Amino acid sequence: MDLLDSQFRVKVGLAEMLKGGVIMDVTNADQAKIAEDAGSVAVMALERVPADIRVQGGVARMSAIEKIQEIQETVSIPVMAKVRIGHIAEAQILQALEVDFIDESEVLTPADEENHIFKQPFTVPFVCGCRNLGEALRRIGEGAALIRTKGEAGSGDIVEGVRHLRAVQRGIRTLTILEDDELMTEAKELQAPFELVRWVAENGRLPVPNFAAGGIATPADAALCMMLGAESVFVGSGIFKSDDPEKRGRAIVQAVTHWQDPSRLVEVSRGLGEAMSGIDSGKLTPEEMLSRRGW
Amino acid sequence: MTEFGVLALQGDWAAHGAILRELGASTHPVRTAADLVRVDALVIPGGESSAMLRLMEPENLARRIRDRIVAGMAVLATCAGVILLAENIRPPQQGLAVLNVDVVRNAYGRQLHSTVAEIVLTKELGKPLRMEGVFIRAPRIVRVSSKVTVLGRWRDDPVLIRQGHILGATFHPELSADRRIHEMFMKAGEAGNG
């Protein structure tokens, strides 16, 4: 993985521009417009929001082509779309459609239970989920230009997101205090590419931006993710499964910018109506946990 | 000492701050009207212009920044920053309308067409007369008024421009190693404060 390759720099460059922002899940053009008006930096096109995938079950796939195109025609901000883990063909289709970012996502039903897509040859950048530093570095090794902690999508419960953010940050801090001759063993433990482990040890951060996803339902949840080292947030069901998506969307956008200012958080958190109802992710069986998909 | 602000509502503002500090500047993130009062010069970074506009609504920050620029505050605007300052924006969007140019958003295409290219400079920035330009879903400047000096071009398009104390780049100098644009901005900021 050549971090200085100009194509990779351009991919990471778009991720850099999305920092301090909110990326909202949308299933159609109307929702995309609401998301853009609320101040989203990008929208994520998918067939169903995670909360609905949980309730309805069935195989969750890449969104319909017409839906993606309709969203692309409606908004001027970048359009992302999800593919199933390991589904190279869906990814090639999205690249041909010229989506701006591809999310190889555990929220959809995996197409390959062992291998993720080899993302380096693609011109379109990829974002991938992770639960810890090793998983983040494996995805970057494959070519991901942006990492998001997985959290537990569609739950409205932030606890898994917090667990994953803390795990990534703890993993990074640990690397920075190890001696050079301890790094190979740490790479073995992390199951991560040695050169990337070394890069993180030297720089004290991931070589690509690190956003948070999964379970964010309130402005306070978004601010918490920022406090724990996330550089932007993905909000899925949290917006369009709430009482007032436009108002809540705007509030979460403000919260991500002003996360260090509690009085501003009070202001934006007022009068938002009901948040999505949510489920306690501690009550989910391992099979029901979307974050366990991929490795 | 000149206090340099970086508009930190959204986007890659942190990279600009790091470069300015490396060049010896004192920098401050600007998110509120109170922050703006404390700075003498401002970077408006890359990001999504529509999101930044939304984030400027509380406290009418866009209007306050505009007033400061009209009063002579030195500004470095990159990518989305150029869109925000432009007089005419296509497709139509609100803006600060202080830079006498017409810009077209995402005119070079979607992310698939983002690229690292070589920019040809005029002699104002010194040698070499070439500079790396990282273009990310870049806007295209399609008209410049006579008040605007073109300092750099990619193909035939103006990509680096100056209008008095306003410096604008449709690419991302903060993502390259060449520091000449930030140095030029710092000189303007220091002169403005003198």
Give a verbal description of the structure.
The complex is a heterodimer of chains A (295) and B (194). Chain A is 44% helix and 12% strand. By secondary structure, chain A is α/β, with parallel strands linked by helices. In chain A, strands 7-6-5-4-3-2-1-8 form an eight-stranded parallel sheet. Chain A is globular, with a radius of gyration of 18 Å. The model of chain A has no long low-confidence stretch (mean pLDDT 96). Chain B is α/β, with parallel strands linked by helices and 194 residues long. Chain B has one domain (3-191): 3-Layer(aba) Sandwich (Rossmann fold). Helices cover 27% and strands 34% of the residues of chain B. Chain B has six helices and twelve strands. In chain B, the strands form two sheets. Chain B has a nine-stranded mixed sheet with strand order 2-1-3-4-12-11-10-7-8. Chain B is globular. The model of chain B has no long low-confidence stretch (mean pLDDT 96).
Describe how the helices and strands are arranged.
The complex is a heterodimer of chains A (295) and B (194).
Chain A: H1 6-17, E1 22-26, H2 29-38, E2 42-45, H3 50-56, H4 65-74, E3 79-84, H5 88-96, E4 101-105, E5 126-130, H6 133-142, E6 146-149, H7 159-177, H8 183-190, H9 194-203, E7 210-212, H10 219-227, E8 233-235, H11 237-240, H12 245-257, H13 262-269
Parallel strand pairs in A: 1-2, 1-8, 2-3, 3-4, 4-5, 5-6, 6-7
Chain B: E1 3-7, H1 13-22, E2 26-30, H2 33-37, E3 41-44, H3 49-55, H4 61-70, E4 74-78, H5 80-85, E5 86-90, E6 99-104, E7 115-121, E8 130-135, E9 140-144, E10 149-154, E11 157-163, E12 166-169, H6 180-193
Parallel strand pairs in B: 1-2, 1-3, 3-4, 4-12, 5-6
Antiparallel strand pairs in B: 6-9, 7-8, 7-10, 10-11, 11-12
